[in-house]
Amino acid sequence: xxxxxxxxxxxxxxxxxxxxxxxxxxxxxxxxxxxxxxxxxxxxxxxxxxxxxxxxxxxxxxxxxxxxxxxxxxxxxxxxxxxxxxxxxxxxxxxxxxxxxxxxxxxxxxxxxxxxxxxxxxxxxxxxxxxxxxxxxxxxxxxxxxxxxxxxxxxxxxxxxxxxxxxxxxxxxxxxxxxxxxxxxxxxxxxxxxxxxxxxxxxxxxxxxxxxxxxxxxxxxxxxxxxxxxxxxxxxxxxxxxxxxxxxxxxxxxxxxxxxxxxxxxxxxxxxxxxxxxxxxxxxxxxxxx
Length: 290
Ligand code: CAA
Prior knowledge:
Layout: E1 8-12, H1 16-27, E2 31-35, H2 39-58, H3 65-72, E3 74-77, E4 92-95, H4 101-114, E5 120-123, H5 130-134, E6 143-147, E7 157-162, H6 168-180, E8 184-189, H7 196-212, H8 218-229, H9 235-242, H10 244-258, H11 267-274
Parallel strand pairs: 1-2, 1-4, 2-3, 4-5, 5-6, 7-8
Antiparallel strand pairs: 6-7
Helix pairs in contact: 1-2, 2-3, 7-9, 7-10, 10-11
């Protein structure tokens, strides 16, 4: 395993995943530049990270004095070109923007121009082809998937996805980095939904079908998985946690990418998304969140 030379990380996108990623890197001693398009998003992200670091300190998982130290390692900016400043330049940027190919393609083209030639471009995408994103850049061998799980500070896994073009040095660097975060990296090749969502989304979808068909209530379906299979959350609680819109988007992508009707989104899920019932974030999904 090569020695880690990475000290500064860029994170694009300050939503739940981006702020979780910034949190774990800062907690592990890395300098982080967190970038989003609005100052407001960055302020909210810093608040969320502070709350979660304090939560860890309260549980004795992190010395209290390290909360402020970790926060001080996070710089925020709304200016993407700030990533190019020589004394600042990150050796890796992890993109955690919205899950839209056109948006990510534009970001990758622009980051490719801004960043030093040796920098790695990683994406936290849960479903978009790494191979296709790599092809947007002049450094396809240095593009890779680094898929974290929510809540990032808690979940042990990083699913590392090799695109067709990804070279071994890039893989090794990201593997070593994941271990320095205290995570367990698992290697996967580029394919729709990778492993995590290719297996998880059909479970959530089938759970929704059982509710739609009146086989059981949402509560009963979830209890079957919590009590019978020791899942920390049942599949429908988890769907609310992930966002029903995200689940439907991933199912559509699996359906289209793999061409198998078994991935078609459950009509109940689609109707709920149409109604704006997106799960926890909208206050209503399979459950209510007053
Ligand atoms: N930051 C830091 N710590 C956090 C945290 C956060 N955001 N959220 C929770 N925690 C910690 C708590 O402090 C607590 O620590 P201790 O065990 O030391 O007490 C621990 O996590 C458990 O939290 P709670 O007791 O508050 O709540 P819980 O027991 O109900 O657990 C949960 C919450 C960790 C989310 C648990 O329900 C769980 O593991 N659920 C499954 C989550 C999951 O499957 N995530 C993957 C989603 S899929 C995805 O992300 C990828 C995709 O592509 C769609």
